[in-house]
Structures are given as structure tokens and as C-alpha cells.
Amino acid sequence: DLFGRAMRVTEIAVADELASAASLLMGQGDEGLPAVLVRGYRRAAPERPAAALIRPRERDMFR
Fold it and tell me: In this structure, is residue 6 part of a structural domain?
């Protein structure tokens, strides 16, 4: 990153990825569709609880 820290992916944000793909299909202008139906996605059981994603303030790049 800009501060010399190594960037590592620890969790893939599947909901964000699906929302981004839906946004591409919906369109951004007057061609926009009101909704996108996602079919065939099979959610895997989480390996750890969502609370484990919260980083201490000193290690959080986005605060």
C-alpha cells in the first residue's frame, strides 16, 4: 500500500462481488434494470464468525 505495508486478502467479500456483478448487469444510466436475480450460487458455511473480521483500530487501513 502507500505506507509500505503488504496487502493480503484474508476474506473474499462474496456479497460485494455479487453486488458488483449485478450492478454491471443492471446498468448505470437510463438502461438500468430494477433488479437482478442471482441463481446457482451455493453459499459455503463460514470458517469463522463475522466478528473475527474486525481489526484493532491501529491495524485498520480504512478508518
Answer: yes
Give the type of residue at 9.
Answer: V
Q: What is the pTM of this model?
A: 0.59
Each residue's pLDDT tens digit, 12-57? 788 899 999 999 988 877 777 888 999 999 988 888 888 888 888 8
* Alpha-carbon span 56 to 61, nearest angstrom: 10
| Counted domains in the chain | 1
DSSP SS3 for 52: helix
Cα-based torsion angle of the residue sequence 9, 13, 14, 19 in order, rounded to the nearest 10 degrees:
-130
